[in-house]
Structure to design on (187 residues):
């Protein structure tokens, strides 16, 4: 009878030992997973703000013209601005001028009412010049350090974003200020 009780006691002892080892393994696995989950959460939190769409000051969704490449028109990655007029070429390379011009173009786009879309349909400026179409306006090109560029076409009081084919009607004050910043003589 003593052998049977000793065997039973040994079985219970081994069973308790196996249960304790399992609990210990679970505890170690949980202790390893918590920091891992926290690190992943922090990394995702750092990466997501750059992926979020920009919003206007009042919290509304960003206008369509501010999405993708055109939203970068006012940032510090612009290193050169070229203004092409009929028979004249201007280049702005001073960082203060570039920041002021690109920021003002961005403000004009946000404040100006939209004239319409698809103003220049299926044509770009180079195609128009190749076909002999006379251009009377000014082409403004914002060149970035990464090689991308944004082009705008300014004629009379209309500013056209050539990437989105959206036109914006500028007020006389906005037009005068933009022409002054770009160095375009009033015609």
């Amino acid at each position: 009878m003593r052998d049977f009780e000793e065997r039973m006691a040994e079985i219970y002892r081994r069973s308790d030992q196996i249960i304790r080892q399992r609990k210990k393994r679970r505890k170690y696995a949980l202790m390893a997973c918590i920091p891992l989950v926290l690190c992943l959460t922090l990394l995702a939190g750092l990466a997501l703000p750059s992926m979020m769409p920009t919003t206007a000051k009042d919290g509304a969704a960003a206008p369509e013209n501010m999405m993708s490449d055109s939203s970068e028109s006012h940032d510090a990655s612009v290193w050169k601005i070229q203004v092409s007029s009929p028979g004249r070429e201007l280049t702005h390379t001073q960082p203060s001028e570039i920041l002021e011009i690109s920021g003002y173009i961005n403000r004009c786009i946000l404040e100006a009412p939209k004239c319409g879309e698809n103003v220049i349909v299926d044509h770009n400026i180079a195609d128009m010049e190749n076909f002999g179409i006379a251009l009377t306006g000014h082409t403004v090109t914002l060149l970035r350090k990464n090689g991308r560029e944004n082009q705008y076409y300014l004629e009379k009081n209309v500013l056209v974003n050539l990437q989105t084919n959206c036109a914006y009607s500028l007020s006389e004050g906005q037009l005068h200020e933009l022409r002054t910043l770009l160095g375009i003589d009033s015609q």
